[in-house]
Amino acid sequence: MKMETSYLGLELSSPLVVGANPLTERIDEIKAMEDAGAGAVVLFSLFEEQLTLSKAELNDLLAGGGGKARALATMPDHGRIQMGPLGYLEHIRKARAAVGIPVVASLNGSPRRQWTQYAKLVEQAGASAIELNLYYVPTDPELEPRALEDAYYEAVRSVRREVAIPVAVKLNPFFSNLVYSAQRFEEAGADGLVLFNRFYQPDVDLEHRTVKPRITLSHADEARLPLRWIGILRDRLKLSLSASSGVHNAHDALKMVAVGADTVQLCSVLLRQGVEQIRIIQRGMAAWLNAHDTDLASLRGSMSQHNAQDAASFERAQYMRTLDSYTTP
Ligand SMILES: Cc1cc2nc3c(=O)[nH]c(=O)nc-3n(C[C@H](O)[C@H](O)[C@H](O)COP(=O)(O)O)c2cc1C
To answer: Residue ranges of the alpha helices (H) in 102-223?
Structure first.
């Protein structure tokens, strides 16, 4: 079964891409991902704080120091943070030397930060593409939503100007009008959008009266948010779309392709069950396509909002009907 896929202008052997996660800190795991059939690997992120803080400040913050420690405390993993910007460039080099599949570097930070210089270094280190994970939690009541959104587009535009490799943007789902924003990202030069970044919400420890970071792996239901938005965006944009959140098996992955995803990113399933899942999911996809006498290219986008029999299902009409369909036990 042909599983070749074009993503960000790169030719991939499979639509299954490993999403940014801590397994990519190890070169042997990245090799295992390639062996299991991954089309590409997105490396764990380099955080903006790693570029702006000195090593001493960073260590102090990781040890629970004050000030910006609050921001760092919500980061998913502290071990890799010690790698630092130079270590991250070295990791890209090693990963590229170890595997033939594209290796995507991930830069994670506020849209209001200048990413251009480091983006250039990441390109020089051999990254096949950049995934920009723009993450910001606005709490300033004076900050106009428009100004913040413009900062997102400008961040992408400036990185795009600086590098020749493709640039994808990993989005959060909280834009007021995602279709508008997605089009602005496309105009700013993004080669692809990844839907969606998962927000790691803080939790409260009642006993100690502290706010703690708590990372949870995804549930299958979480796939429905990117499923809806990829379906809505597919026929409105030319750029690549990649699904991320809640894809745990072959059916989940096929559904994402059906609404229009070019690639499907796997993370929680690999952390729970190991990278061999890539092979299992890929085989499951091929078996389903064979059994239904179709192929990936024909399935792709066949159930986007534009192509779906019931286009309204992607919008508000769905809401009333869904609530109405519930029967109390
Ligand atoms: C432990 C862990 C670490 C992660 N690290 C990153 C990261 O460094 N950069 C990033 O963009 N996303 C990161 N993610 C988010 C994943 O790439 C992915 O978008 C998210 O988990 C949703 O996909 P899933 O449902 O397959 O897990 C991380 C997720 C987990 C669970």
So the answer is: 116-124, 145-162, 178-187
pTM: predicted TM-score of the whole model, two decimal places: 0.91
Residue nearest to atom 30 of ligand 1 (CA): 21
CA of 302 to the centre of ligand 1 (A): 28
Per-residue pLDDT of the chain (329 residues; tens, 9 = 90+): 889 999 999 999 999 999 999 999 999 999 999 999 999 999 999 988 787 765 565 566 556 554 444 444 444 444 565 678 889 999 999 999 999 999 999 999 888 777 888 899 999 999 999 999 998 888 999 999 999 999 999 999 999 999 999 999 999 999 999 999 999 999 999 999 999 998 778 889 899 999 887 788 999 899 999 999 999 999 999 999 999 999 999 999 999 999 999 999 999 999 999 999 999 999 999 999 999 999 999 999 999 999 988 878 888 766 777 777 778 87
Contact, 28 vs 35, CB < 8 A? Answer: no
For ligand 1, the distance from its centroid to the CA atom of residue 56, given in whole angstroms, is 27
Say if ligand 1 is within 6 A of residue 305 CB. Answer: no
In DSSP notation, 105-138 reads: EEEEE-TTS--HHHHHHHHHTT-SEEEEEE----
* Residue 167 φ/ψ, nearest 5 degrees: -125, 125
Could you tell me if the CB of 76 is within 6 A of ligand 1?
yes
Residue range of the domain that includes 289: 5-325
CA of 271 to the centre of ligand 1 (A): 10
Residue 21 CA to ligand 1 centre (angstroms): 5
Number of domains in the chain: 1
User: For ligand 1, what atom is nearest to the CA of residue 217?
Assistant: 31
Which CATH number belongs to the domain containing residue 152 in this structure?
3.20.20.70
